[in-house]
Design brief:
By secondary structure, this protein is of the alpha/beta class. It has helices at 2-20, 22-29, 31-49, 66-71, 73-85, 109-117, 119-132, 143-154, 157-161, 169-172, 175-183, 187-200, 202-218, 229-245, 248-259, 277-297, 302-316, 323-339, 345-355, 358-361, 363-368, 377-386, 418-426, 435-440, 454-463, 495-498, and strands at 90-91, 99-100, 394-397, 430-432, 468-474, 487-494, 515-522. α23 links the parallel β3 (394-397) and β4. The termini are far apart.
Length: 525
Amino acid sequence: MLAEKIVSKLKWIISGLRKRGFIGLLELLFSPVLIPLYTIPFWGKFLWNSRILLWGQWSRYQSFYAHNAINNLFYRTQWINLNRYGRLAKSPIIGLGNFPLSNWWHLSLVSSYIFANAGAITVFSGTFVLIFSNLIWLNSVAWQSVLLVFTIVLFSSSTVMLTFQNYQILGWMWLPIAFYGLINNHMIIATIGFSLAGLFGITSLVVSTPIIIAYLLVTDQLQFILILIPAFIIVFTNFIPIIRTGGLGASIRLIGKMIGLIHVNVHYKRKSMNFSLMTVYLIFLYGFSIFLIWFGTNKFPLLLSLSYTIFILNQRFFRFADLESLIIMMIIMLSITIFSSPLNGYSILSLILAANPLIVGSGIVIRQKKIKLFDIESILIEMRNFLSLPKGTRILFSFNNPDREYEKVFDGYRVLLEVPFLVASEKEIHLFPDWWAVSQTNYEGAPTLWGRSIEEIENNLNYWNTEYVIVYGDTQTELNTSFLTFFTVINSFDWGLILPNFEKLDLLNKSIKAPKWWLLRHKIN
């Protein structure tokens, strides 16, 4: 399987290089050095296309890319439920219709609110705060070294990847300042930085904690572990609802199954935890960068090596963070390691290589990215018309049985589903199965949610006590007439007509066509 993926990816790279001819070959050979030729105009376009944010309407723009803009509606759906029902309640429109919102202890209310209402401006602001916060090292390191590192990072392909981030950027952006305070014994700065990281996102604080402890042990300053107390007090408030409702153990098991940490009594197995081509490549790239720094300074880079270990654990054993977050972590720790040691050519080479991964940010990839804010509102208007049903309605979305594979859930349409899930939450309609329904049935012997045949759909409608269902087919096709005997067509939604450039927006795997959805009502005899 891995070999097939490697061959497929290599064919894609070779195809892109052939289109560029000799210039493409030069791009491949000298990619880390040539990256600024693409990132400098990229940031120019990024800033120019961001000017519309000066006029407001931030809720219309969740990202600069269609795929991310639609996918990020997931977080707005979460905020709607948290804001309407509160963490102590069970949501009647999430999961199986009784989902305890206390299970979302991993969410920051502050970040959820900000990102749900201003996704693109959040990523825009967080990216530049994170990058420019490295300039704080001007207080303790030669300005030439700081500006060199700052420039390399600013115009790297890894920084371009930050534009794909979600609300997590609000937590990560404080870490350069926090670690500056820790390493330079400015403990008030460190305390404030880590506290802000905990306020805006648990992931960055959880990842940082073992690195902080190891650093304090090595430097014989373990007493300064106290700097983490305010941060963990802030995080602990997220757990109060789940402790009060008595579901902490069940919640940890639910989340553990979702991220691949728990494998006992799990119905949906994760296959993506195996090493992918990108993971293998990044492991070798970051490992080589660590070696260069170690060789150049004759000092083992502890912080960077711990980050590297966390990266491998996340990619192979349990997925507690997305790839973009782990790339941020590695670049932050690499910059801090360089700032903390005498600058040399090996360190700079290490940074240039690690900050410019060929696969995730080559000139081929960056040049193909369409940098334009994606307005989500027109799609939401159409979806509100499609789901024109009364408050309290339950709707089953029919999908094929994923055959116990987590990656096959929702038939490859996962991203597009965030639109109806959001609108359903707005209208207080229970549309399922969603990710939380999958998590609530992720055990052996759980009731089924799946099936696309008429018989399977009718059985599911009866079991889940609803008369409405959404079925799908390819764009610009008609509903199979056999459904008309048992169902009445209420509405239809054709993605191929709603988004005429659907195929160019990278919303789905290339092998999957734009879908058409039909909202049906079961004829009760």
